Amino acid sequence: MSMIVALAFLKVLLYLTAVALAVAAVHEVGHATAAVFCGHRIVGVRISWTGLSVRHEHPNPSLVNRMIITASGPGLGLLSALVCYLGGQSQIVPMFMAFEAVNLFWPTPATDGYRLLQAFREWRKGR
Fold first, then answer.
1. Taking the model in full, what pTM does it have?
2. Exposure of 74 by Cβ count < 10 A (0-12 exposed, 13-18 middle, 19+ buried)?
3. Which alpha helices (H) appear in the chain, and where do they start and end?
4. Where are the domains of the chain?
5. Could you report the per-residue pLDDT of 33-69, keeping only the tens digit for each?
């Protein structure tokens, strides 16, 4: 009996890990797409214990472009959650929502919410 429970637990853990990686990948595709749209060059993808990140460069990025690129990751994640929900894949929606909520509202420099807040403050100073 304990072997069956262990295998079931492993299956759930692998499923959640795969979904988490897919959610992070969708989020980063949002950033990468916006970066290319704004004239940036993609120079790599970094995978670390905290997740994925797309590295891009531009000689002189504007504040508006930085805000667009930063907001596009969570934007595509939330749009994907809606598409999954409407498509009948509602079991994935909580992962998308949790990921984007933490990313937007956790106040650390590594999150998109923090970067958007910093850009907004910079924009307000320049007015």
1. 0.84
2. buried
3. 2-37, 63-86, 93-105, 112-126
4. 2-126
5. 999 999 999 999 888 777 788 889 888 889 999 999 9
